[in-house]
Q: What sequence folds into this?
């Protein structure tokens, strides 16, 4: 199994944010808060695991605004912000399994869900910051994957 | 361009974001429809003549592969072009949906310009 370093995990999340909505981020404070909004996506295949994204409230609003191309004032933090964080988990999870899959691509991605961050600490973690908020990305190759029924 | 587009994705915010890209491709917003899963999409396809379906794969209730299969099996929907827009990278699954007549597969994350080009290319190929 490929190993994803914290630096690579941060790069994958940065690519996801820049390509999807031109949201620019840099390295953040790893000791910062876990995030107000947490979503994750599991995967199955040659191995199973889970990827979490944990965003501060302001980051979630900024992400939603960037996705929609509108001002942050037009964003409903509770609905749009949550939805944006779930979608980010989906996209970053997709990049993680691409990284893990090599040329075979035999991993299957589940559905993104809101879920508490309960990684076992066996994988990698990256902290990122935008102009307005913070984001933590956690990859746990030991977590249960699985396709969540929604 | 008086083409009708159906966006099928379980993420409401991504549907709204894609809808903006579809507008950039010159599609009249009044001719753009949305569905949150395959079942809702079939309801739209029953009610409206759709030229292009932008299709996520991982969705609850009825996923994108199941929807593509249903469309492929129905002669009355033979005019519908399919483009997959998904974070899915499982090669076997992507090969299966390509076998169902999917015109293109666009991986998330995608740049809006990429999707715009795919929309125009797919609809242009129908002209």
A:
């Amino acid at each position: 199994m490929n190993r994803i370093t914290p630096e690579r995990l941060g790069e994958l999340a940065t690519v996801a944010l820049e390509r999807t909505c031109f949201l620019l981020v840099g390295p953040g404070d790893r000791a910062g808060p876990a995030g107000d909004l947490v979503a994750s996506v599991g995967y199955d295949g040659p191995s199973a695991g889970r990827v979490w994204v944990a965003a501060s409230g302001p980051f979630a609003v900024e992400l939603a605004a960037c996705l929609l191309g509108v001002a942050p004032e037009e964003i409903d933090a509770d609905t749009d912000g949550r939805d944006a964080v779930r979608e980010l988990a989906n996209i970053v999870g997709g990049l993680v399994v691409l990284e893990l899959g090599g040329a075979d691509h035999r991993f299957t991605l589940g559905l993104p869900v809101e879920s508490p961050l309960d990684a076992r600490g066996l994988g990698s973690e990256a902290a990122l910051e935008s102009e307005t908020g913070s984001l933590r990305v956690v990859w746990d190759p030991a977590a249960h994957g699985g396709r969540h029924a929604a | 361009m008086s083409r009708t587009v159906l966006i099928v994705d379980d993420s409401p915010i991504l549907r709204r974001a894609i809808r903006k890209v579809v507008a950039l491709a010159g599609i009249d917003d009044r001719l753009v429809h949305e569905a949150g899963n395959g079942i809702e999409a079939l309801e739209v396809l029953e009610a409206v003549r759709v030229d292009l379906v932008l299709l996520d794969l991982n969705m609850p209730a009825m996923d994108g592969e199941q929807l593509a299969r249903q469309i492929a099996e129905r002669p009355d929907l033979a005019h519908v072009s399919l483009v997959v827009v998904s974070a899915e990278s499982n090669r076997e699954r992507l090969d299966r949906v390509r076998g169902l007549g999917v015109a293109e597969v666009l991986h998330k994350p995608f740049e809006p310009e990429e999707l715009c080009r795919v929309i125009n290319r797919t609809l242009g190929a129908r002209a």
Notes: Strands of chain B lie at 5-8, 32-35, 52-55, 81-86, 102-107. Chain B is about 45% helix and 20% strand. Chain B has a mean pLDDT of 93.
